Amino acid sequence: MASGNLPKDAHGLQLNFCKTLACDNFGLSDAHRYVVQHANPKRPAMVCRECGAFPPLLNNQDVLDELQRLRQFHNEELPACRNSQCQNKALSVHTHKHLYHAFGYSGDRQRYRCKSCQSTFVDKWSGANHKRHFQENLLGLLFMGYSVREICRKLTINPKTFYDHIEHIASRCRRKLAMMDARWMNHAEHYELASHYVALQPKSNNGTYWTATGDAKSGYILCQHVNYSGQEEPTGDCDHSAFQSPARFVTREHRAEANRSTAAHVTTLRDKIDQQYQTILARGNVEDPMGNLTYFNYPSKGAVIRPPYTSYAHFLHVLDLCKNECHLTLYLPQDPMLRSSALSVCLPRIQNKTIDLLYVDEFGDWDNDQPIDKIDIVHMGWWRDRWAMTQTNQAAKGICYLAGHQNKPKYWLRRASINKTIFYQQRFQLLFDGFINEPRRKLRPGGILPVLDIFRAWHNLCYQDKLGITAAQNLGLTNHPMTLQELLS
Ligand SMILES: [Zn+2]
Ligand SMILES: [Zn+2]
Questions:
Q1: How far apart are CA 206 and CA 203, in angstroms?
Q2: What is the largest CA-CA distance in the chain?
Q3: Which of 138, 193, 245, 325 has the fewest Cβ atoms surrounding its Cβ within 10 A?
């Protein structure tokens, strides 16, 4: 096989390199280090000449396009420069204060001017909310599990009005969150984050996955993204090619690849981890969870993004929020898509020794405070990942240290956890079960997206733990729980 070129870098971003940490080619993108072919889409496009690993290739520009989409969505309706030619475009006033001047008022709403292009814009949601009382009722009913139809009947509105209100509420929530997120990120001395993803609508098989990253201790959720774009059309090839653009869309011709579910009953942590490796290896591309779908129904409008593109963009977005000089600890569930994307995006942090990256898994009712007597080291999966496991009675915990310079199993077994992020996602799916699974919404994930932002605001700012403390309070960002009324003001 002749050696070809790697996909072109995009504005200095090159994510294609060997992802085996112990390999001499780790993090290096010189073409001669790899065998690259794209004549046969069924064979690996790139093989490392040192270690034989074959990380899937990515189109770097498409990762940046996806990041731009996520940013825009995350900042939807937040005050930010709107000039598409400007470098400040979509960077919000709340997170990038230094880029803007306050520039008078429009009615009771704050106006800003961009320092780079001088264009002005208004903070739409800074004024009083005259519909607050009505929206409080609407939200109350939604959180109580009433269907859209029932809510519309109780409030005598039509569905269009319902969704308009949801969009408005989501915008106010994003604004509150942006201020709070910035307060946390700018004042923290280090970050300890936990990521996790699940199918957004578990009963729909529509290929949309919901990734969330939050503070591992308090459970404050920093950001969440879904690989679905309501505004775009899925163009490009049915087979993924990192050498063509666009590369990031799942096309409408895509068919489910798996012929059976690999799920089985497991009785130990080791079985559970082993089972997960088998699930991963059953995928055509180990870094794409869509390979495990036995059915696939394309959403009725919009575009599904290939999950790895959203995952890479998600971590680019997270890293952008973290201050470079502060140490980052990142906990992940056992999954090579998250591993590869976090590892690749954190390459400068791995080189500067400002990161710890780990898989964490638990079995049974594990309690981080119980004593750890014995730690077993087990090499598992095709990758021979090095897991450290411990067990007491019926509960067990395992960690797999992926990158960093503090490989101390006992320390991490006591500390690492992704439970808060898992709890957040499970709670949403429980609370909004009716909403998510309404028959007419199964192939319309778009309607759920603003509700995710509302839920994130409620979860971070209003929801109180057993001690009556919110996640934002636990992080020292506020000194009291926010009421729904305050959230909507
Ligand atoms: Zn290698
Ligand atoms: Zn500008």
A1: 9
A2: 68
A3: 325
Give the pair of three-digit tokens for residue 431: 């609370």
Interval 188-216: pLDDT, tens: 999 999 999 999 999 999 999 999 999 99
CB 166 within 8 A of CB 454: yes
CA of 17 from ligand 1 middle (Å) equals 8
How far away, in angstroms, is 363 Cα from ligand 1 center?
32
H-state helical runs in 204-332: 269-281, 307-321
Please state, in angstroms and as integers, the Cα–Cα distance from residue 456 to each residue in 178, 317, 341, 445, 472, following that order.
11, 17, 23, 17, 11
What's the pLDDT at 2? 46
How far does residue 126's CA lie from ligand 2's centre (Å)? 20
Residue 174 CA to ligand 2 centre (angstroms)? 21
Residue 136 has pLDDT above 70, yes or no: yes
Ligand nearest to the CA of 20: 1
- Ligand 1 centroid to Cα of residue 57, in Å, is 14
CA distance 249 to 231: 12
- Ligand 1 centroid–CA 130 distance in Å is 59
Q: State in Å: Cα 326 to ligand 1 middle.
A: 29
